[in-house]
Amino acid sequence: MSIATLSRSSPVVRSGHVQLSIILKESEKATLQTQIFDQIRTMILNGQLRGDDPLPTTRELSAQLGVSRNTAVLAYERLIAEGYIRTKPYVGTFVSPDLPDTAFLSAGVEAPGAVKADASAESAEGAEEAPHLRTHRLADPKRRRLVADFWVGRPDSRTFPLKAWGQHIKARLKSAGTKLTTYSDPAGLLELRQAIAKHLAPARGIVCDPDQIIIVGGCQDGFNLVGRLLVKPGSTAVVESPCYQGAAFVLESLGAKLHPVPVDHDGLDVSQLPHAQGALAYVTPSHQYPIGVTMSLQRRIELLSWATQYDAYIMEDDYDSDFRFVGSPLTALKGLDRNERVIYLGTFSKCMGPGLRLGYVVAPRRLVESFRRMKMLMNNGQSWLEQAAMADFMASGEFGRHLRRIRQLYRERRDALLEALHKHFGECEIYGEQAGMHLVWKLPDSFPSAEEVEAKGLAAGVGVISLATGSALRFDRNDGGDRLLMLGFVALSEKEIQEGVARLATALKG
What we know:
alpha/beta; four-stranded antiparallel sheet; 16 helices
């Protein structure tokens, strides 16, 4: 006997964008009306359907289940009578937004948010069994209420080239054909990789083929790609001290042993690099995160020599190198690399916006095929539409103009921040003001710690960032990091910057 003779089923009953799985069995003692009632009620009580979710009309439900409309009407009437669903005249039928706890109790189901007596014990037990994974911090949405938020790494949404971007999106949609319904090269859209290669040559001194470029979903995705390919449990991963949590935690999660190397005014102290074969070093030479210093040319050369000598690879995170305010930027490590030891990571998150989730990895030629295969294992590529729009945005010259425009704007905001700091606090010891999207203020000894200043600022409606809040990982608690305050300036207007620093000064005097 076939399954069809045993039951009537509709695996695709649409409720707005929700799909209800309702199976009606003719062999059941319960009537069809009761079966519909019971199954929809169970979906609501189990959280499959939530408050204000739309439901199919009785006509749609009866047609899709192959029952009379009267059966569907009677089922809905019972659900309405017991408070599970409600109707809105001329609009439709919806799940009730507020269900009384008695509804759950009568059905023998725990109400949402109910906590078992031994829930904490179960959670603790589960935490012990789960692998220990540390994650970096992201901005708290509540910070939007602040008068001025000097959060780091966040571009100004007001500078996004919305009109031009929209035009490229529309143009690509019109000619999309099957591109939105088929898989493309996991390494990324060739047109975008060609545009990136063309941009990197003059901007960062990197000469590479488009085939060496892998499109990823931002630097964090790039860290995972590089780490999965090159990190083995127990292998050495050199990181700056302090460094960016997001990269260090990825390497740690893959089993690497983190080997911190201190940072000073010239960047990574290469004299303290380990004598370890096959290590992977993570560095931010253009604008060290979090301190903001730039690695000197001499140390770049020494770092490359170390990598060659010990058969190591260097993961160069060039996260905000588009913004250099004093002099010409030094050539990227990748541009100086003659022995194919550097893996370069770039991103559009800082110059365009993190919402696009677009970044790229430039791989050494001998590792290109391995990177492509690993990327395929991780996912089947980034969104075609955003890649295509970015390729057009770059090819048209609008990307270059956008960079020049915001570079000048961000320079003016940096100047406004420096001026405000000097006005309210006198001479300040500042790091990293020559480039990037944030600078670091070393607090005077007479001031509270950075975390205390951060707390006082928040109370006054001003967001300033200690290293811990700014996703910086410290390995040495005596490194002076508790005196360092990070100030992102690019997302604030000059007026907001001035108001924020003035409020902070008042808060610290109180």
